[in-house]
């Protein structure tokens, strides 16, 4: 049998969600309730610390996004020396194929985390801000 630990999910949608870089690497799977919280707020785990993504009310649930409904989320990393949060426009299913894993300009660490919820072919627009790699 595979070695490892089996983690169980939660029984209902939490108030705040959770996304992890470990899912992008295939080390674990974050359940659908954590990807679709009651409020459009997600704790983002990437590498050795946590940051936050938040959206306006009405961010479509993952199952409602087929067909390319876009959403704006704001990203804030208190350790990233940011003066303000960065607005990211997410357009699900807009890329013809998933970005190259090694292309950090298009598919950096935070982009990988975001795509665990919005899909591997989601297009991310940092709206003129410098992307976080």
UniProtKB/TrEMBL annotation:
A single GO BP annotation from the record? protein K48-linked deubiquitination
**Which Pfam family, any one, appears in the UniProt record?**
MINDY-3_4_CD
Alphabetized PANTHER family for the sequence: UBIQUITIN CARBOXYL-TERMINAL HYDROLASE MINDY-4-RELATED
Protein name (Swiss-Prot/TrEMBL) = Deubiquitinating enzyme MINDY-3/4 conserved domain-containing protein
Tell me which family the UniProt entry assigns to this protein: Belongs to the MINDY deubiquitinase family. FAM188 subfamily.
State the InterPro entries in the record. Answer: MINDY-3/4_CD (IPR025257), MINY3/4 (IPR039785)
Molecular-function GO term, any one: K48-linked deubiquitinase activity
Ranges of residues in domain Deubiquitinating enzyme MINDY-3/4 conserved: 5-128
């Amino acid at each position: 049998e595979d070695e490892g630990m089996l983690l169980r999910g939660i029984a209902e949608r939490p108030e705040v969600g959770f996304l992890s870089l470990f899912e992008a690497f295939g080390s674990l799977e974050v359940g659908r309730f954590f990807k679709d919280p009651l409020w459009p707020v997600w704790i983002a785990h990437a590498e050795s610390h946590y940051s936050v993504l938040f959206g306006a009310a009405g961010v479509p649930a993952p199952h409602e996004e087929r067909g390319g409904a876009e959403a704006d989320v704001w990203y804030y990393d208190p350790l990233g020396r940011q003066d303000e949060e960065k607005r990211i426009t997410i357009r699900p299913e807009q890329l013809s194929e998933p970005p190259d894993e090694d292309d950090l300009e298009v598919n950096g660490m935070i982009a990988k985390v975001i795509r665990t919820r919005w899909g591997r072919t989601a297009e991310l627009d940092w709206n003129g801000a410098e992307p976080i790699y």
